[in-house]
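User: Predict the structure for this protein chain, please.
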Amino acid sequence: MLLLAIMLVSLQLNAQTLRADARLDTNSILIGDQVKFHIRLQVPETTPFVWPTIGDTLPEHLEVVSASKIDTTRLGDGYMNVEQILTLTAFDSGYYVVKPLRFEYGEDRNSSMETEPYLLNVFTVEVDTTLAIKPIKGPMAAPITFAEMLPWILGFLILIVVGGLLFYYLKKKKQKEPIRFAPPKPKIPPHRLALDELEKLKNEKLWQHDKLKDYYTRLTDILRVYIEGRFKITAMEMTSWEIIHAFAGARIEKENLIMLREILEEADMVKFAKYKPLPDIHERMMSSAVVFVKNTANGILENQNKTKAELAETKAEIQTA
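Assistant: Here is the predicted structure, written as structure tokens:
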């Protein structure tokens, strides 16, 4: 009796500590479909066990599509959960019995535990035999995307352009006419731009509205832009004194340089010293700017043989004027 009681207690403890089960996601699938088969074993961490060989337990017509890795998760209190997921499929209809999986455990592998068997129904689509047999449909064409068509569209446009140019060339060659393309739009001369801007500034009447700084800033900026376009001097980045010095060897009339110097100095006095000239000075500076532009539009001296001494003399006169 004592031995029987010990055996019963041992069996009860084993039943509490080890548990194996397996289940299917569903018990019926359509032929060719797939179903998940979950295998799980709960066992103490110190108990050795043998995982079953899956290929020997499945029916002949039930195929294993894929098998996950055997995953182990610690549950606490010295237990762990071991799980694997199989993906099954069948290509023949019928009923298939998934046999029990056998787990062996213990030091000598002399103990075992099995899962419950499962029945899987694989059915096919019902066919109406009263209807006529239809031919097999061919593969369906996938819709063409814009990204696939883009290289062809670009190639077609390039072909049209090249073809048009070739046709134009051959036509002109046959008619013995020179090949002409549209000439570039002529640039507006610097002096024309300057005179237009000066006229616009004059009509705005800034100094009449006591906007002296704005007036002289605009006036000198117009002249600086003109000087850059006409004489290739970076006047926008120079001070008034640097501009005058840059003109010293430019071979333009001395009177024009003196006129420019007077405009720049008057503007500097207004902008930086808050000087307020009389109204007639404002009008004279505008007139001097117009005269300077007109005189220097084509004002390079025809005499290109000035000596260095003459140029130096001109420079000295400008500085002392």
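Residues 146-175 form the longest helix (30 residues).
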